[in-house]
Design brief:
CATH topology: Rossmann fold
Low-confidence stretches: none
Oligomer: single chain
Strand content: 15-25%
Order of helices and strands: EHEHHEHHEHEEH
Structural class: alpha/beta
Number of domains: 1
Largest sheet: 6 strands, parallel
Radius of gyration: 16 Å
CATH class: Alpha Beta
Mean pLDDT: 93
Number of strands: 6
Number of helices: 7
Amino acid sequence: MNVTLIEGSPRKGGNTASMAELLTRHLRSASAQVTRFSVAEQYFAPCTGCNVCLKTGECVLSSEGDAMPELYDALDACDGLLWVTPVYFAGLPAQLKCLVDRLQAYYGRRLLHGRPAESRRPAAAVVIGAGGDPFGAQAAVIELRSASQMAEFTLTDPLVIIGPDVAGDIDDERFAEERLAARLLVSALQERARA
């Protein structure tokens, strides 16, 4: 089984990175191949709205160091998609939103080649928030659901973890249940991908 993991935090070494590493180890222990992308470690150029992808099905935007071509290849080849991201003001971080906007190329492909088969590959998400935002993570969840659908995946109900704030909090004993829930979510992703 091949899983593409997208890590959506612009901060290296934070709670999102810790969770992504935990889930990568969990997947690999179950013999899954994991291809990991991180907006903190790789550059994803923002969409310019040129709409060429709507005519060709391909994104023509390229700049030095842009990792989007590799991400397209990984998404096309994987059996399942896993998002691990923080929530910023109820939505996604700007760096992750750049990546998400570039998934418009999949819409262009459908305009040219028709709709994909009804069965879509599975996607799962772990969303981590410090708390205090009265709107929670609802906007981030909607964006992830839409992005997954655009890239031809079906996102199950994401696991939203509220509370970790300072780097390393997610590894604390008080979040042991949430770490277990995340591993169970990933195991369910693997089962759906095998079905």
